[in-house]
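Q: Sequence in, structure out?
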Amino acid sequence: PAMAGSPPNLTTITATYNAGGSTASASDTTTLTDGLKLDKYQQLPAGTGSCTTTPTTTLTGNTPNAPWSNMAIAASANTIPGKCIAYLIVGTNTAGSNITNINISDVVPPNTKLETGCGVPTVTGPIAVTGGPYVSGFTGTVSAASSPLATTPVPPTGTFTLQFCVKINDM
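A: Exactly. Output:
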């Protein structure tokens, strides 16, 4: 069930390309259950959209350190086709008891494909990457789940992460 009184989180990303002024947009909706908070962050690997640099992640509490951000990435020469964007989803248990049976998934955004040159999908915490095969060029859903199901809890205030990278398609 959705959290009482909480509307779904809707994120829309719009990219405008210099060549011909083409525009593409993607929307992502997140619905949460009581006691679980999900935050999605992004960054340009190496600050330039490099598709050969794996971003590192350090959490302070349940927030990743810069350059991870939950703010929009401004259009620039680093957000054109052929460049990469890294995503990080941070889950936090806000309940007073353990959470089990976690399943998390995120669709590779339209007009992008998974890129393993800047890191294969990785996780931290008591979850494991599921599905795939996650190879460069993959389109679909990147997933992770409790491992093993129903026996590995996230304790109160505990966190887990799912990180992956995509490459902006050539137009």
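Residues 1-8, 11-19 have pLDDT under 50 and may be disordered.
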